[in-house]
Amino acid sequence: MKRLTKLTIISILAVSAVTQAKTTTLLFCKDISQPDLKSLTIQENSNIQQPGLLELIEEHKDGSTKELYAMENDYEEGWIPMSPNEGTSRVLIRKEGKWTVAQNKGDYRVFNEATCVK
């Protein structure tokens, strides 16, 4: 009877491992010059049923995370909308081969550097 119980547990663990989502990180950014952000991750997730839709995961300095969505075309073009900071919209953009965070402040657009790796 003990042997049957162990086999049952192993098969349940194997099924749950197979059904887990497969993610592929496309871009990871840290050292972001933003007061609230610790890191950004853009990834493909096999659980997302819509083709071309990517996850943007913002990790905040307070330990919280926020999950947003972006289109694959936006990533390829280098223009990914992010969550606003204190009412100011911001976008992760690729500018001259580097990723930066752009914010509109009044009549000006401010660019803040980020260390990003593919």
Describe this structure in words.
There is one protein chain. Helices cover 20% and strands 49% of the residues. The protein is α+β, with helices and mostly antiparallel strands and 118 residues long. The strands form two sheets. It has a five-stranded antiparallel β-sheet with strand order 4-3-2-1-9. Strands 5-6-7-8 form a four-stranded antiparallel β-sheet. The model is unreliable at 1-19 (pLDDT under 50).
Write the layout of secondary structure elements.
Elements: H1 2-19, E1 23-30, E2 37-45, E3 53-60, E4 65-71, H2 72-77, E5 79-81, E6 90-95, E7 98-105, E8 108-113, E9 115-117
Antiparallel strand pairs: 1-2, 1-9, 2-3, 3-4, 5-6, 6-7, 7-8
Biggest sheet, spatial arrangement of strands: 4-3-2-1-9
Query: How many DSSP H or I helices?
Result: 2
Low-confidence stretches: 1-19
Percentage of residues in DSSP E strands: over 45%
Give a nutshell description of this structure.
With 118 residues, the protein is α+β, with helices and mostly antiparallel strands. The protein contains 2 helices and 9 strands. The longest helix has 18 residues, at 2-19.
